[in-house]
Write a structure and sequence with these properties.
Helices cover 38% and strands 17% of the residues. With 388 residues, it is an alpha/beta fold. The strands form two sheets. A six-stranded antiparallel β-sheet has the order 4-3-6-1-2-5, with helices on one face. Strands 10-9-8-7-11-12 form a six-stranded parallel β-sheet, sandwiched between helices. A hairpin with a 4-residue loop joins strand 1 and strand 2.
């Protein structure tokens, strides 16, 4: 299998714009109209998500050993759409037909064979993981909303009680569907470590006109029942014996809050644990929506330091500028394991700044959602509407 040929031909196809995913979905629904009901009524700007996800993952099949675990998580998670093995074959046929049409002269017999082999490998990992999980866990869990709190101008917190068999690790995310917007899922991260009573906090950024955030914040009430998919993600986690540098933008704070919560539990139960410096960035001070709680925690826990950072308000009395720059130039960046979460541009900038300041690339972790989170659902739900 020639991975360079896969990447080259994928670039040729994606360079041709929106016509490519439009053809893909047209081909898929024309040949398998029964699949249409698995997707939202309004596909809108998200219709390229699934196509982009397939290409992103498959064209990197040479790294399958690195992403094998994450593919398995996605396979388990996609049971919430009632995806069965034959659906993978349907999607694969339309995907290859689309590539053949748009790659042109580069679509040789060998390239076609390589794409088919790569797709088969990816689909096999996901199908086997889904089959194994079906023996032990449901395709989704029901969670009861106990409170909806508007914590800032544009961030709300959903308090949700989940069944005790819903297990996740701090830093992971899970797809969430709210009753006011059926068949549209959004990945959110529990903002706390697992609790004995099964309650979690989800942070939702309200985006004007955003379908999911509007439904989650303004149309969700205590007593409503959410659907929660299987947790995914394997990068935002602590390592034994390593102190932590946490760098968050916006509601990217949520998964890192869960990591922080887990560290607090270690200190409380063992009297020892990682030292943690948390940098939280926002454009304006009033969007530092968890500042009171984090400031209070830092005031009485010597192992924890909190650094709020504001980029667009020159009157802010604390750190100003981009959160990645503030973290990279702080003394706490040396020797720590750095976990970064936020929008794509925020993560890219923070990683660049940390590397530039001398933090080894191997000490920086973030979830690579390029083509994964944005597209990790057959429905291609909107992921740009908020963050975690």
């Amino acid at each position: 299998m020639d991975s360079n040929a896969l990447k080259r031909t994928w670039s040729i196809a994606t360079a041709q714009g929106d016509e490519v995913p439009l053809y893909f979905y047209s081909h898929l629904f024309a040949h398998h109209p029964e699949l249409r009901e698995m997707f939202p009524v309004a596909m809108g700007a998200q219709r390229d998500k699934l196509f982009a996800a397939l290409g992103h993952i498959i064209s990197r099949v040479d790294r399958i050993d690195e992403v094998n675990g994450f593919l398995g998580q996605l396979g388990r998670d996609h049971r919430r759409f009632a995806v069965v093995p034959e659906h993978y074959s349907m999607l694969g046929s339309s995907f290859l037909a689309t590539l053949q049409r748009f790659v042109g002269a580069e679509w040789t017999e060998q390239v076609a064979a390589d794409w088919a082999e790569a797709y088969g490998l990816i689909a096999k990992v996901m199908v086997i993981a889904a089959e194994d999980a079906s023996d032990e866990t449901p395709p989704w869990w029901d969670g009861e909303v106990t409170a909806v709190e508007r914590r800032s101008l544009d961030v709300a917190v959903l308090q949700v009680r989940l069944p005790h068999d819903f297990a996740y690790a701090p830093g992971q995310s899970a797809a969430v569907e709210v009753p006011a917007l059926p068949r549209t899922w959004r990945y959110l991260s529990p903002a706390n470590a697992q609790r004995a009573d099964g309650t979690v906090e989800f942070h939702v950024q309200l985006v004007p006109g955003g379908l999911f955030s509007t439904a989650a914040v303004r149309k969700t009430n205590p007593g409503d029942v959410l659907r929660i998919g299987a947790p995914v993600g394997d990068q935002l986690k602590a390592e034994a014996g390593r102190d932590l540098l946490l760098v968050a933008g916006g509601t990217g704070l949520a998964p890192l809050s869960a990591v922080l919560d887990s560290a607090a539990t270690q200190w409380r139960e063992n009297g020892s644990g990682p030292r943690v410096d948390l940098f939280h960035g926002a454009r304006v001070p009033w969007n530092l929506y968890d500042q009171p709680r984090l400031t209070a925690l830092a005031a009485h826990e010597p192992w924890f330091s909190f650094h709020p950072v504001v980029s667009d308000d020159a009157t802010f009395p604390g750190l100003k500028g981009k959160v990645g720059s503030a973290a990279a130039t702080h003394a706490s960046s040396s020797g720590r394991l750095a976990l970064v979460c936020g929008s794509g541009p925020m993560v890219a900038h923070a990683v660049s700044e940390l590397v530039g300041s001398g933090v080894p690339r191997g000490d920086i972790r973030y979830e690579d959602y390029t083509g994964i989170e944005d597209n990790s659902s057959p429905t291609g739900e909107e992921q740009l509407e908020g963050t975690r």
